[in-house]
Fold these 2 entries.
Entry 1:
Amino acid sequence: MKMNYREITPEDVAAIFDVRIKTWHNPNGAEELERMGITYDSVRQMMMTTHRGWLGESGGAVVGFVMGNKQTGEMWVVAVLKEFENRGIGKSLMRLVEDWLVREGCGELFLTTDPDESFRAVGFYRHLGWEDWKMEDGDRFMKKRSEQVVADQKAARCESKAS
Ligand SMILES: CC(C)(COP(=O)(O)OP(=O)(O)OC[C@H]1O[C@@H](n2cnc3c(N)ncnc32)[C@H](O)[C@@H]1OP(=O)(O)O)[C@@H](O)C(=O)NCCC(=O)NCCS
C-alpha cells in the first residue's frame, strides 16, 4: 500500500471531517462536533492562526490525519480509518505533529483522550512515549516532553538506517 503524507490545506477540511466522523466512538460524531463548535469554518480559522495538520492518503483518498496547536502545545486530534489501522499510519502522523510542535518551541506537549483504559488510543499514545498526567472534566490528559520527542526522532532515524 503506497501512502502519501502531506500538509492539510483548507480544501481538505471536508475530507478530514469525514475521517473524524467515521472514527468517532459512537454514531453521533457529526452532532457532537457541532455541539463543541467544531465546524468547517472554525477549523479553517484555526489553520490560519494556531493550528497545523498533516494527512495520509492512499489512492488519492484521505485515510488519516493529525492536527496540533502551536499556541498551547496540544496534539489536538489524530484519526485513522478502521480499515487502515495497524499499519503505522497513526505513528507517522504523530511524528509529523510532534516534530512541528517541538520546532515551534513547545517544551511540553499534551493531549486529551478517553478516560477508559480499554480505548485503543490510550495504549497507542503510551506506546509512543506519552505519559498519564491527570483526569479533569471527564477527560484523560497525557503529556510528552520535547526531549522525549527528540529522543524518539533519533531512534527512528537509527531504525530506518538499520533497515
Ligand atoms: C488511535 C489510532 C490513531 C492509532 O492509529 P494506527 O494507525 O492504527 O496506529 P499505528 O499502526 O501507527 O500504531 C503505532 C504503534 O502503536 C502500537 N499500538 C497501537 N495501538 C496500541 C494499543 N492500544 N496498545 C499498545 N500499543 C498500541 C502499534 O502496535 C504500533 O507499534 P509499533 O510501532 O511498535 O509497531 C487509530 O486507532 C484511530 O484513529 N482510532 C480512532 C480515533 C481515535 O480514537 N483517535 C484518538 C482520539 S483521542
Note: Strands lie at 4-7, 51-58, 61-69, 74-80, 108-113, 131-136, 139-145.
Entry 2:
Amino acid sequence: MAKDGEKGEWKEYIWNPRTREFLGRTASSWGLILLFYLIFYIFLAGLFALTMYVMLQTLDDHKPTWQDRLSIPGMVIKPNADEAFEIVYNTQDTESWDMFAQALDKFLSPYNDSVQAQKNYECTPDQYFEQEDSGDVKNNPKRSCQFNRTVLEDCSGIHDRYYGYRDGKPCIIIKLNRVIGMLPGKDGQPPFVTCGPKKEDTDKIGELAYFPPNGTFNLMYYPYYGKKAQVNYSQPLVAVKFLNITANQDVNIECKINANNIPAGNERDKFAGRVSFKLRINTKN
Ligand SMILES: *[C@@H]1O[C@H](CO)[C@@H](O)[C@H](O)[C@H]1NC(C)=O
Ligand SMILES: *[C@@H]1O[C@H](CO)[C@@H](O)[C@H](O)[C@H]1NC(C)=O
Ligand SMILES: *[C@@H]1O[C@H](CO)[C@@H](O)[C@H](O)[C@H]1NC(C)=O
Ligand SMILES: *[C@@H]1O[C@H](CO)[C@@H](O)[C@H](O)[C@H]1NC(C)=O
Ligand SMILES: *[C@@H]1O[C@H](CO)[C@@H](O)[C@H](O)[C@H]1NC(C)=O
C-alpha cells in the first residue's frame, strides 16, 4: 500500500492534473525560465563577440603585439646535423657525403643570384635598411635586400659543387633565426660569426675560412619586419670552411655570434647565439 502511495506521489510530481503543473511548475513558469536562459545566453554570446572584436582591433597583421624579449637569436647550421649534432662522413664513400652537398644545394637554391635579382632590392651595404610606417600609413609590402649566393664564394657550390666535402674541407652554413625588429651590432659594427674548437680539440680544428669575409652579417639585412610585411626576405648567411681539419678524429666545434649588443649567452638560455656540433671526417676505408 505504502508503495502505491509513493508511486502516486511521483506521478503527481511529474504531471499534476489538478494544478496543471509539470515537474512542479506551471507552463508559464517554465516559459519564463526558458526565456530567462535564452536572454542570458544571448547576452553572454554578445559579450564574447564584443570582447573578441575589441581584441582583434588591437592586433596588427604585420607585427606581433607580444614578442618574447629574448634578445639573443638562435643559430642554425646547414647541412642539418642529426639530433646528435654530428656531421660524420668518409671522403672515400661518396654516398656518405653526397647528401650533405644535396642538402646545401637545396638550401641555397633560393639564393641564386638570378633569383635574388628578381625578388630583392640592391641595398646600400653597412647600414640598416629601415622602412618604417609613417603613423597609420603602412609602408607595406617592405622590400628586402639581395643576398647573392656568389657571396659565399668557395662555399657557394658554384665552383665546387661538393662544397669541399669530397676533399675533406667541408663547408658549414650558419644562419641566425629571425627576430622581428632586431638591430644587431652597434655604431656601424656588424655582427659576425666565429667558430672555434671545444677545449680538448684545440689543435685539431686547423685553419678556417669565412664567407663573406670576417663572417659578418651585413647590417643592411636588419631590421626584419616579419613574414607578412617583408614577404621576400632572405636571411643572410655565413659560411665556414674547414681548411685543414684533422681527419679520423672527432672534432667538437662551437660557433657563436659576436655583436656588441648581443650578450654572450645568459643564464636563461645557454644555447642562445651559439651552436655546437661534432665534425668527423674519415679518410680510411
Ligand atoms: C640555382 O642554381 C643552381 C646551379 O647554379 C641550379 O641547379 C638551380 O636549379 C638554381 N635554382 C633556382 C631556383 O634557380
Ligand atoms: C646579385 O647578383 C645580381 C645578378 O648577378 C647582380 O645584378 C646584383 O648586383 C648582385 N647583388 C649584390 C648585392 O651584389
Ligand atoms: C617579391 O618577389 C616577387 C618575385 O618573386 C616580386 O614580383 C615582388 O615585387 C617582390 N616583392 C617585394 C616587396 O619586393
Ligand atoms: C675584416 O676584419 C679586419 C680586422 O678587424 C678588417 O681590417 C677588415 O677590413 C675586415 N674586412 C671586411 C671585408 O670587413
Ligand atoms: C694542417 O694541420 C697539420 C696539423 O694538424 C699541420 O701539420 C699542417 O702544417 C697544416 N697545414 C696547413 C697548410 O696549414
Note: The two ends are 100 Å apart (CA to CA).
